[in-house]
Write a structure and sequence with these properties.
The protein is an all-alpha fold. It has nine helices and two strands. Helix 4 packs across helix 5.
Length: 238
């Protein structure tokens, strides 16, 4: 999507920052409203839907006093994010939605399997963050990224150049280091079970699936993908 944005090297980072601020502010307001109308948080967490990781469904039911009303609010909450009249990849949205529904059916057969799938997505997401942030931190600390103002030939291969939107100096290194440490903590705790001394049914097996994905990816890259990979096209200014 960034490739379709005008002046992407500035507008995309700003859009990420503004989106985070807006979502954080609105999310905080929603949390306050939900807590205000929640009579008993413990009962919501211990309810049948709360045990599956969806306590807000029980909160809806307690607020409106009707299972049908709570179901309607939940459906609206899920459907309002899809705008069929806008210029979006409709087929991709439909496939993603159907995939999410199929994954949700896992919860019917086994809550432990469903929790493992969720934990796998969290660990995989943060693993991708940790890898990229670690390389960026390494480049920062070793001076591997140069300023465009101090580089005569910007088309020199193998040279990384700072874009117009970045945090220079020790402050950037500190933020980068904090991001790596935070990602590692979340990554490790994503493999923990949800209860103390879990049994076979309550164990978190996402560490096994994550290791399987890593092994498959490495084997796939070594024996096939590395022969097909083409690096990015270097653009030069004439």
């Amino acid at each position: 999507m960034a490739e379709e944005v005008k002046n992407a090297n500035i507008n995309v980072p700003w859009s990420m920052i503004v989106t985070t601020l807006l979502n954080g502010a609105f999310g905080f307001g929603i949390v306050i409203a939900v807590l205000f109308v929640t009579p008993n948080i413990t009962s919501a967490l211990n309810s049948p839907t709360g045990a599956l990781g969806f306590p807000y469904m029980q909160i809806f039911a307690d607020s409106v006093g009707s299972a049908g009303g709570a179901t309607g609010m939940t459906v609206i909450l899920l459907l309002m994010t899809v705008q069929m009249g806008s210029s979006i990849p409709v087929y991709a949205v439909v496939i993603a939605s159907l995939t999410a529904c199929v994954i949700g059916l896992i919860n019917i057969g086994s809550a432990a399997a469903f929790n493992d799938v969720i934990s796998l997505s969290v660990s995989s997401l943060y693993a991708s963050y940790i890898i990229t942030e670690s390389f960026l931190l390494y480049r920062r600390c070793t001076g591997g990224i140069r300023s465009r103002n101090h580089l005569e030939d910007t088309s020199e291969p193998g040279v990384l150049i700072w874009g117009p939107f970045h945090l220079p100096g020790i402050l950037g290194i500190a933020v980068n280091f904090f991001a790596v440490c935070f990602g590692i903590i979340i990554f490790v705790f994503s493999f923990f079970p949800v209860s103390y001394h879990p049994g076979v049914a309550g164990m978190n097996y996402s560490v096994l699936m994550t290791a399987a994905v890593v092994i498959f990816s490495v084997v796939y890259y070594v024996f096939w993908a590395r022969k097909e990979f083409k690096g990015p096209i270097v653009e030069i200014e004439l």
